[in-house]
Amino acid sequence: MAVAHRACFVAGFLFILLLPGCEARIHKLTLKNETRHTIDLNNFGFYADGTLDVHLHSLRVPETLVDYSKSPVGFSLSRSRVNGVLSYTAEESETCPLTLKKSTNDEPLILFLIDIKKQSVNVTAMGKQDNILIAKEKVEADKGQKKVKRASGEQSKNPDKPTVLPKQAEKRSDDKKSEQIAQNPKAEAVNVPGTFNLSSRNQLTLDLGEIHGTYNFSFRMVFGSEAEGLYSLKFHYCQNREPGIDRAYSFAVEVTEKNPDGYLSAAEIPLSRLYLYMAGVFFTAALVWVYNLMKHSYSVFKIHWLMAALAFTKSTSLVFHSINYYFINTEGHPIEGWAVMYYITHLLKGALLFITLALIGTGWAFVKYILSDKEKKIFMIVIPLQVLSLIPLQVLANVAYIIIESTEEGSSEYYVWKEILFLVDLICCGAILFPVVWSIRHLQEASSTDGKAAMNLEKLKLFRHYYVMIVCYIYFTRIIAILLKITMPFRWQWCYEFLVEVSTLIFFVLTGYKFRPASNNPYLQLPQDEDDVENDEVVTESGALEGISKVKKTSNGRERQKESTL
User: Fold this and answer.
1) Cys bridge to 27: 164, 255, 322, 565, which one at CB 3.0-4.6 A?
2) How do beta strands 209-211 and 214-223 pair?
């Protein structure tokens, strides 16, 4: 237990350190000396009137070594058919998306090509568009400057005319321009962002600002009713796709995504209510389980109370998860206090789950009373190793989970920790299957060597059912649910979380039913000693002790009851 407490303390401390960097649906990403050719900035499901704000700051790229007309750099915004599948085909994805000239389907695809030399951003909209772009358009050189050059040329030819200084010419030009704007209210000022309907205008040029050798620009996208869907925003540096080329670049970007009802993606909006409802269901199931333990207190083991603690912890974790999503939807980022509580309860729930499954799978909590001395020694070595190995694995899995939640998708660390989480999760799943398989093998050998075959076969059948239950639980929550997530429409992808929670509830209920505290449960029954059975028969047949009662141990080995020997 000391190891578990230290592990929880370390994990909680890491959570507190990592949470300040979590920006939820308001993303801030800074990359320095990056060499990846494609960076996945984010995926988000937009409803009608949803908005996407992108602010690029401090873009620094090699200016002399790269021909950006052939190897462009910029952003792509594409609508996915399903989660993770972009609008362009697999053949097209082998080349840089910024080099596409036309779309092969009607899915919206918007390209932002950054031109360093001309200090502009060329926007190309492909596919069926129902989006509105709000950005600062690139304005041509001021006509007043051309007039200054003409005036200076004429002055050289006609020295009798008074000289007009360039600043005076600019002032006159600005005055003239302000008069034109006053006369025509629809005329746009240079620094005022314009509004462009991409369904009618699929080509335009935006302004690219420069500050001390770094470049910046920003835009806002408003999605129409026909443009709803799951969108992927990516940054591309096409030259690094060529083998052997790793040009370093740096930039900082801030991305804010919002739907009309809040900052959550379309698939995440129902999650707050879903987690709250499921928390109530798990809490009700935990109360029913505690009532059952109190009703059959004569055959209750410590593992039964551990199972009750797991159900209550799961319910509490879901409550904090629901609160966390509520604040993300309203504020755009989680409240640190609620987020810390969620991650701590999530860690405890994961540790309790795998430890409970391991203890049930080995049968140590129930059948240790009938083990021989040799078997007990084996158990004393195997069980602590399994439990102690699960605790650090669960801590590592939860640390990886919180890092993934608090790290931006575009950072390189995000994918490293995502792979670590996947690997550790598989190891934990195998770790809980191993003791079940070991117990099945032990019962198979015991049923063929001793005289208690009937009882051992009953337990063997129960363990086989338990093994099938664990495999089905892993299969549904790790495979079926993921397949459902990538095939469902973007607005129904919350069904993935619903399936995971329902599968967990069914697994908890079946596990509690199989190993419930009851006198007729074969898992909890201890076989009667053969010598006692033989002596019982002899005494009964002789009739010498007729009417005398015999004391017999019950299934839990702790209480005794009287049984007539008639």
Assistant:
1) 255
2) antiparallel
